[in-house]
Design brief:
Layout (H helix, E strand, L loop, with lengths): L2 E7 L3 H10 L8 E7 L3 E7 L2 H4 L12 E7 L14 E2 L5 E9 L2 H10 L11 H12 L4 H9 L4 E9 L5 E6 L4 E5 L2 E5 L12 E3 L4 E5 L3 E6 L8 E5 L4 E3 L7
Helix pairs in contact: 3-4, 4-5
Length: 250
């Protein structure tokens, strides 16, 4: 784990993701990766520092105004492209980036393999993408699939997920930092606020056990604390805070 960043808005995501990761380079890392959404989900990953990892890659193909990116320092699995983030589900509908440790990844992976899922890495993180994908296959919306998946995870983590079909960014944190920047024309999620300094000074620190779901026009934050209602706060593109009633059916 090292750094994550995600963007959704009016601008091209890739320059924001790339600059955001470069601002996090004080932390040691061994691989890097990007996922963007336009008409399809596109992934680019490499081993090494950013400049060497993507030196021979055509980043102009990574189009779209939705994207996530990650710098990784190996904790589960060796240093290789397959283990670099982002990770995707079997049907390439979901991509995720993740900081932290999923303590119950082995039992979740065993269950998902039994249901026919095929894993391509040895990381604990990949199980998140498959878990969301599995819940999408059950007919759930992207928001509900993420909510249900996140509540099955044990450990400490901050993570971002994007959906090819829903065209949204879902973010969740448990015991590791995650911030949301209200930028000009979009929303930026990151594990370190230094990645936001070039784009905005309007920052919301996502609370523990909170899930934020952003589209291009607004972001809505839900509490996923067990045995509580979903406290729901929304922030629209005009940056006028709009607090909505609790919503149990996200």
């Amino acid at each position: 784990m090292v750094g994550i960043i995600g963007y959704i808005g009016k601008k091209n995501a890739m320059p924001i993701l790339l600059q955001g990761l470069k601002s996090l380079e004080k932390s040691d890392y061994d691989s890097v990766g990007f996922a963007t959404l336009s008409d399809s989900l596109k992934i680019c990953k490499g081993v090494g520092k950013i400049e060497s990892a993507v030196r021979d890659r055509d980043l102009t193909n990574l189009e779209g105004n939705i994207g996530i990116a990650h710098t990784r320092r190996a904790t589960h699995g060796q240093i290789c492209i397959a283990n670099a983030h982002p990770h995707i589900d079997c049907k390439k509908r979901v991509a995720i980036v993740h900081n932290g440790i999923i303590e119950n990844h082995e039992e979740l992976k065993e269950r998902l393999i039994g249901q026919g899922h095929i894993f391509t890495s040895t990381t604990d993180s990949e199980v998140i993408a498959h878990l969301i994908g599995d819940k999408l296959e059950a007919g759930n919306s992207f928001e509900v699939a993420c909510k249900d998946a996140f509540q099955e995870l044990a450990g400490c983590y901050a993570l971002l997920a994007i959906s090819k079909d829903a065209r949204r960014v879902a973010a969740f944190r448990k015991d590791l930092p995650l911030a949301l920047g209200l930028a000009d024309g979009g929303f930026i999620f990151t594990s370190n606020v230094s990645a936001l300094q070039e784009w905005t000074g309007k920052i919301i620190y996502v609370k523990n056990y909170n899930m934020a779901v952003a589209c291009r026009k607004e972001v809505v934050i839900h509490s996923l604390m067990q045995d509580t209602e979903f406290d729901c706060a929304g922030y629209a593109m005009g940056w006028e805070e709009d607090i909505r009633p609790a919503n149990k059916n996200i």
